[in-house]
Specification:
Chain B: This is Phosphate transport system permease protein. The complex is a heterodimer of chains A (255) and B (314). Chain A is an alpha/beta fold. In chain A, 36% of the residues lie in helices and 26% in strands. Chain B has a two-stranded antiparallel sheet with strand order 1-2. Classes of the chains: A alpha/beta (255), B mainly alpha (314).
């Protein structure tokens, strides 16, 4: 079924170290187009590190070393000639804590298009409307586009960040616990939004919340101590996990 | 076993604490005295400031009873020995120095700050920042001689007709002196910008430079502008370098290759020369001092206002 979809990411024998501490061990994983792929696991299991490796944001930590390959659309992102800016233009990211720029909502959305050379006002206006609609925020903010994004609620700020990411029409959206700082109602809105977005984008979402993974994802990967323990269809993983450790985790025996 | 360890002179710890408390009857007295002493220290600096202001203003009033205020602020001739007091000549000299200094200090300071805050690794930063700050510790007399004996001869080779004492050389060196201040304050402001904002920009495919210029600098702008204002006020008040290298020729002119005189330079000239106490010239340094004080006060207030007004909340 899902196997007929083409792969977005093809991770092969990925190892990662922070200085002398190994954080990821021999990860092999295929991420499919238009899937919502959830990554679950206890704190410190490497799940955040893993998604940040997919757009090489992990490299902002100076002591990081990696081995292995990550192919994005068939090309190894660790290749010397691979421009990291190109990768991040195609692979967008939404962070744990909403991090809009301290600018107006409008300026937040057009930041990406502008740095990538889109300058004319009419196109930018269209991008703002389309992105905010895509992030299910347009109706709430259309009358105050030029107000500071920090005047919005946490949930709205997070959707501004999602809209900011949509504005450059990425291929994949990585989400690093996007709802962990939000209240339940905002969380619900973001989850509904993810269901909408998967029609056009491939989504990889890290979550602390197993119910959330079960609700929104097609495939789930369970990480433990830097290893990928189990990666399969969400329904299978939560109903009949094949690994004892997965079963212990999802039944709440630890973590 | 344990309780016997804690005993000394046959007393337990709690008994000894009790005993010490009784013998230390002075503790309460000291506790009451300390805040009063501290308050006195704080008051002292306020009193000194008031004293300085009082001297400045009262002598300034005496001066203006002898010289017309209108002449003082509108005339462009400054020659106290011939009774012409037009402070515009000194102000133009001060502005010339300040503008030259800022042309040097702002680009160099901001560039150093950008490098230190956004590009340098921790190791490089820890090595470079103290070196930069050493520049701030060099006595200004040394800078003055550096201007006179190194910068001026070098400029003479490039600019024909440069006078030996000139505003350009002094201004450049004042600028060099201020670079560490601009760099350090700007770096502080940029360092205070949360990393999540940089990550937000970089995750959109922005390069480091795009992130710096379009996200970090705007977010740190209030601190950066405030550092400029403080630097300007430092340049306006700089004395030694201009007294040594800029000359002593008050002139209403904006030609940096000529010898000029600044407000501070004039005050030095008069206070070190043999001017009799009570003469108009003697009082004139207070009037110039007050003008100088108003200039730097305005810059400092401006710095405070800007840092409040343009704060991007994050």
């Amino acid at each position: 079924m899902a196997d007929t979809k083409s792969s977005v990411f093809n991770v092969k024998d990925l190892n990662l170290w922070y200085g002398d501490n190994q954080a990821l061990y021999d990860i092999n994983m295929d991420i499919k187009e238009n899937d919502v792929t959830a990554i679950i696991g206890p704190s410190g299991c490497g799940k955040s590190t893993y998604v940040k490796t997919l757009n090489r944001m992990v490299e902002t930590v100076p002591v990081v070393k990696t081995s292995g390959e990550i192919e994005y659309r068939g090309k190894n992102i660790f290749d010397k000639n691979y421009l990291v800016e190109d990768l991040r233009t195609k692979v967008g990211m939404v962070f744990q804590k909403p991090n809009p720029f301290p600018k107006s909502i409008y300026e937040n959305i057009v930041y990406g298009p502008k740095i990538h050379g889109i300058k004319d006002k009419k196109t930018l206006d269209q991008i703002v409307e389309k992105s905010l609609k895509g992030a299910a925020l347009w109706d709430e903010v259309k009358d105050r586009l030029h107000e500071n994004a920090y005047g919005l609620s946490g949930g709205q700020q997070q959707r501004v960040c999602i809209a900011r990411c949509l504005a450059i029409e990425p291929d994949v959206i990585l989400m690093d616990e996007p709802t962990s700082a939000l209240d339940p109602i905002s969380t619900l809105k973001v989850e509904e939004l993810i269901q909408e977005l998967k029609k056009d984008y491939s989504i990889v979402i890290v979550t602390h919340n197993m119910q959330q993974a079960a609700r929104i994802s097609d495939k789930t990967a369970f990480f433990l101590s830097g290893e990928l323990v189990e990666y399969t269809d969400t329904n299978t993983l939560f109903s009949t996990p094949s690994d004892k450790r997965t079963e212990d985790y999802i039944t709440g025996r630890f973590g | 076993m344990d309780s016997s360890k804690n005993k000394q002179d046959g007393l337990s710890v709690s008994e000894r604490i009790e005993k010490n408390k009784q013998s230390n009857s002075s503790t309460a007295f000291v506790e009451k005295l300390v805040p009063k002493l501290l308050l006195m220290c704080a008051t002292l600096s306020v009193l000194v400031t008031i004293g300085i202001l009082y001297t400045l203003l009262s002598e300034t009033f005496t001066f203006f009873s002898e010289v017309s205020v209108i002449e003082f602020f509108t005339s462009t001739h400054w020659n106290p020995w011939r009774d012409s007091y037009g402070i515009l000549s000194l102000i133009s000299g001060t502005l010339l120095i300040t503008v030259t200094a800022m042309i040097i200090a702002i680009p160099l300071g901001v560039a150093s700050a950008i490098f230190l805050s956004e590009y340098a690794s921790d190791k490089v930063r820890r090595f470079l920042k103290p070196i930069l700050e050493v520049l701030a510790g060099i006595p200004t007399v040394v800078y003055g001689f550096f201007a006179l004996t190194f910068v001026t001869p070098m400029l003479e080779k490039i600019i024909p007709g440069l006078s030996f004492f000139n505003a350009l050389s002094a201004g450049i060196v004042v600028g060099i002196m201020i670079v560490p201040m601009v760099a350090s304050l700007t770096e502080d402001a940029m360092g205070a910008v949360p990393n999540v904002l940089r990550e937000g920009a970089m995750a959109l495919g922005a390069t480091r430079l795009e992130t710096t210029i379009k996200v970090v600098i705007p977010a740190a702008l209030s601190g950066i502008i405030a550092s400029f204002a403080l630097a300007i006020s430092r340049a306006i008040g700089e004395t030694m370098i201009v007294a040594i290298a800029a000359g002593a020729t008050p002139k209403f002119s904006f030609d940096p290759t000529q010898s000029i005189q600044t407000m501070t330079g004039y005050i030095v000239q008069v206070s070190t020369g043999d001017v009799s106490y009570g003469s108009t010239i003697y009082y004139s340094i207070y009037a110039v001092g007050t003008t100088l004080f108003v200039f730097t006060l305005i810059m400092n207030l401006l710095a405070q206002y800007i840092s409040r007004r343009f704060r991007e909340e994050y």
